[in-house]
Amino acid sequence: GSLYLPQLAAQWLARSRSNANQRIVDAATGNEVEWQLLGREAGIDIPGFGATPNRVRFLAETVPAMGYKLFTLVNAAAASAPVPEAASDSGVIENKYYRITLDPTGAGIQSIQDKELGWDLVDRDSPFLFGAYVYVAGGDDWPRNSLYRYGAALHAPQLHPQPAANGRIVSIVRSSGEVKAILEASALHTPRVQMEISLPADAKRIDLRYSIHKDSVLSKEAVYIAFPFAADKPEFTYDTQNGWINPGRDELAGGSREWYAVSHWAAMNDRAQARSAALIPYDAPMVSIGDIVRGNWPAEFHPPSASIFSWLMSNYWGTNFPSSQGGDFSFRYSVVSGPSADPAQLTRLGWELMTPLEMDTVAAGAGPALLTSNAASLLHLDNSAVVVTAWKLAEDGDGSIVRLEETAGKTAAVRIDSAYLRVLQAWRCNALEDRLSPLSAIDGGVGIELKPFEVATIRMKTEPLRANE
């Protein structure tokens, strides 16, 4: 049956108090795992207390959903950690999914060739490079312009978007798990914009990380990252707390059509070519579609381009916001593409990327009794359209609480069971965990039907299964 999360490979950042000769082994397969040394943490080696921790990165593949997988540290013959190789400085990076052409001058991307679709994701006619940092000046006649609020007598301000410039390629490095390029540039009131582009070896995904140092200024300003997608007939969707929205169809009259709050993803679908691309903004949930926010307050949704702009910051509003926004900032994104945008799949991918695996250290022989297997799933669902958003002890201590969410926008029946627990009793509850109605516990599990996008709360009383059951 289907599991809580797709069994995709995931990156882990691990801390290990190991010496340089220890190796990481997948306990389920017995195979050694390739790893990359990111650095040695600050500290002093003290006899009897172990060495200063190393910070390493490795690929934890096929981790069971709602469960765990063990990786062990073993002694091995002396050898150095895998060392990344310097790649070509031609301004092109690629893996088996994408070929990316860099533009060092603006610290952005000229072209992204999707090798499977034969599609360049980037709109070459856009005034902005893909992934470009854009500083927007203007609007200082506030509050007499419409940037602050809608008013029939207010005019839209003159805004001046200025992309980063004077850039260079800092490095292009290839390791066993990825190829990475780092670019740097500057912009108005922004002395440093560093853009890191990573192509994982075994995932059709582009990872972007920005490190920005921005000056504090009192004049009106805004900052964006531009993602100008190429499309003949663009259509947009984005996800909210427990569903997704097409702003051209679903927006209520009188709603804002210049910016939107995104939970995990915003997608552009090219209806003419049956292809799509999606942006996953880890740290900046506000986006504008088609253009930057200009205070036009359109009554209908007709974006002038297929671009998505990540709105990082502004000081347009004078209430409950700082008058200047400066300092060091970090923002992360992932970009994916495919023949069509599947909202349910994007939601699961967004959750998986934005809520990565957690790591814990278990000393040999000191783990809980459950760790009799090197990998296990503790809770099982038989419908991939339904996900577990919480599993915890009930607030009153009487049983546990499982919270489910339907993600495909369809009525769904789902059964919950476990290889380690037998469900004795179950109830449908409200959000406060008050019992509403009993659910039938059959063959050690419990079933429930959910409406489209419904969030359901279930209280379960369980008992452990014996080894021979």
Describe the structure.
The protein has 469 residues and is mainly beta. 3% of the residues lie in helices and 46% in strands. The protein has two helices and 36 strands. It has helices spanning 247-250, 343-354; strands at residues 10-16, 22-26, 35-40, 54-60, 67-69, 71-75, 85-86, 92-94, 98-103, 108-114, 119-120, 132-138, 159-163, 165-174, 178-187, 190-200, 206-214, 221-228, 234-239, 244-245, 260-261, 266-270, 275-281, 286-289, 307-314, 327-338, 375-377, 380-381, 386-393, 400-406, 412-417, 421-429, 435-439, 441-442, 445-450, 455-464. The strands form eight sheets. Strands 7-14-15-16-17-26-23-22-19-20 form a ten-stranded antiparallel β-sheet. It has a six-stranded antiparallel β-sheet with strand order 13-12-18-25-24-21, with no helix packed on it. Strand 15 (178-187) and strand 16 form a beta hairpin. The chain is globular, with a radius of gyration of 25 Å. Residues 1-18 have low confidence and may be disordered.
Summarize the structure.
The protein is mostly beta strands. It contains two helices and 36 strands.
Features of this protein?
469 residues, mainly beta, ten-stranded antiparallel β-sheet, six-stranded antiparallel β-sheet, 2 helices, 3% helix, 46% strand
Topology:
Blueprint: E1 10-16, E2 22-26, E3 35-40, E4 54-60, E5 67-69, E6 71-75, E7 85-86, E8 92-94, E9 98-103, E10 108-114, E11 119-120, E12 132-138, E13 159-163, E14 165-174, E15 178-187, E16 190-200, E17 206-214, E18 221-228, E19 234-239, E20 244-245, H1 247-250, E21 260-261, E22 266-270, E23 275-281, E24 286-289, E25 307-314, E26 327-338, H2 343-354, E27 375-377, E28 380-381, E29 386-393, E30 400-406, E31 412-417, E32 421-429, E33 435-439, E34 441-442, E35 445-450, E36 455-464
